[in-house]
Amino acid sequence: MVSATTALHREGVLPAPKMHADEIDIPLAMVERLIAGQFPRWAARPLRRLPSTGTVNALFRLGPDLVVRLCRVPWAAGGEAKEQGWLRQLAGYLPVAIPAPVALGQPTDEYPWTWSILRWLPGTNPVPGSLTAPDKLAADLAAFVIAFRAIDIPESRRAYRGGPLAQLDEQTRAVIAKLDGTIDTDAATAIWDEALDIPAWDGPPTWVHADLLPGNILTADGRLSAVIDFATVGMGDPACDLIVGWTVLPANVRPIFREMVDCDDATWTRARARALSISLGGLHYYRGIEPTLATEAQYTIDQVLADSITS
After folding, report:
1. Nearest alpha-carbon partner for 268 in 245, 236, 287, 290
2. DSSP SS3 for 180
3. Over pLDDT 70: what percentage of the chain?
4. What is the CATH number of the domain that holds 211?
5. Pick from 71, 86, 119: which residue ends a domain?
6. What percent of the chain has pLDDT over 90?
């Protein structure tokens, strides 16, 4: 049973519980003052906090067509201007909607970093294990990944998590050890070892979103309608975006996704290990803090472990 307090958090009536020790408070009244002070033309619009499992940003609905996005933690702040620039460049290459920048807010004495106002994108996050049209969503996600690979923008940056798997080795093994008794640590280690034993990606880096988790995907009638949160975007190992095969999709449609993205065995193995590493960290960090994120992480781990048995 959901408690009354939890329900109020989900409805945005109360601030969401903090996920990080260094997270700052972002009360509704402060956001109202930020908007009134910097964008008075929108000051009369209704503003409400949105329930969100996003790990670093607080979201507020501003009228019918805008959303305010403010970072909650210092280690992820300050990139809003660059992200808005990338969003403007990438939009024309992609088959579904992505956030459209409207305005860039500046730091104040109350709020220490830049912040964004974006066009509101309707849709719902997919719930892994409860998709209404998994085969169609698999095809949509494959089309998105293919389109991302084909982006031709000469100026680039390195994607978050875009480097070799070996860079994640120490932290992944440490988290596996911490989850002893919670997951099959021997199976997880075997999957990780297998991926590290194959050659690292040696082709040209490709454009990747690098964070295709359920919270960054929007659907309508079971189909992909939008992808959000482009803070991690850049160039790197194409396996980065194939993680969605385990973070969102069930086993019975995973072959559809793999065939459409034309993935070789080595890239698929790296992608599976990346999905595992991300989800191991998510389960360890968010269990007891954010149930939705912990549940999504557990789903991915279960999918990866089961997939390793059947593949």
Report:
1. 245
2. strand
3. 91
4. 3.90.1200.10
5. 119
6. 78
